[in-house]
Amino acid sequence: MTAYPAAGRQLKSALTSCASALDTAATKLETAHTTVSGLHEAAATAASEYRRTHSDATQTDIDNHVRQQLDDPVTKAGQAITTATNALTTAKTALDGKLGEEGFGFFKGIRQPGGADFLPGDHPIDWEKTAGYSPTSLASANAPADPGSGPGAGGGGGGGGGAGAPSSYGNTPAPKPQVVEWIKEAIQVIKSPEMAAILRKRGLDVSDLDPNDPQDIERIWTIIHHESGGNPNAINNWDINAKNGVPSQGLMQTIPPTFNAHALPGYGQIREPVDNIIAGVLYTYSRYGNLAGHPGIASMAGGGGYKPY
């Protein structure tokens, strides 16, 4: 049954990627339409006025006048069209990647109901434990990981988001290697000498953060998993923040005011994975003191469910 949530998350991520690409393409098309329409209207007006004051003007004269007045409108229109065309190509590539190659086939690999549990009478059970499964605990999270295992190594089911060794926190699946890299990079930025003075000014003590600490990576991933499912473009459009015009966004689902208050210089793009992790982690330290104090982490460490921050 654990295959269904993983497939559902993959489907959600694919749909979000397609929707984001289509939204971007639509925005570029609208911009191109507005640009070209505006240039056409301005060119027509400039040409009409020039004809009115230059009755003997040739078409070449008129074209040159319009080009000078509007700073080469044909080139500007062409650039707008090229930008829109590129956005459409990007959207098509995204859709082909999900619909053409994968075909939203995230549930195809799940075996159909059958076997002993679905047949009348007594039959031998043919269940087999998932390969690579080895329960972990909070106490073992700090232990050195074997090569190719654990949340930092991307082993087991890390690439698929759920088939590998489980997290110490409930049923949180292992993170994808790319997410681990984002987390490590974010911690490295936070711990860099260039940011030390800024953190001191904010009164933050992040001395316990370590990009090579499996527990830090696991805690941040647990927050990311429950907040966004690992999707950098995730946007919450239905809660009170969204109704107030500040929807939570990105991997750690920060609202823009909170993101802006806790972002670091040079890392101010809310849906950039590393930038969002930085702001989310620093917000956690600012409000709860450390990662362990995050309500979701604290609850799950005590055997409860995840609680948002």
TrEMBL record:
Residues 149-164 have a biased composition (Gly residues). SUPFAM superfamilies: Lysozyme-like. Residues 115-173 are annotated as: Disordered. Residues 220-300 form the Transglycosylase SLT domain. InterPro entries: Lysozyme-like_dom_sf, Transglycosylase_SLT_dom_1. Residues 139-148 have a biased composition (Low complexity). Gene3D superfamilies: 1.10.530.10. Signal peptide: none annotated. This is Lytic transglycosylase. It comes from Nonomuraea diastatica.
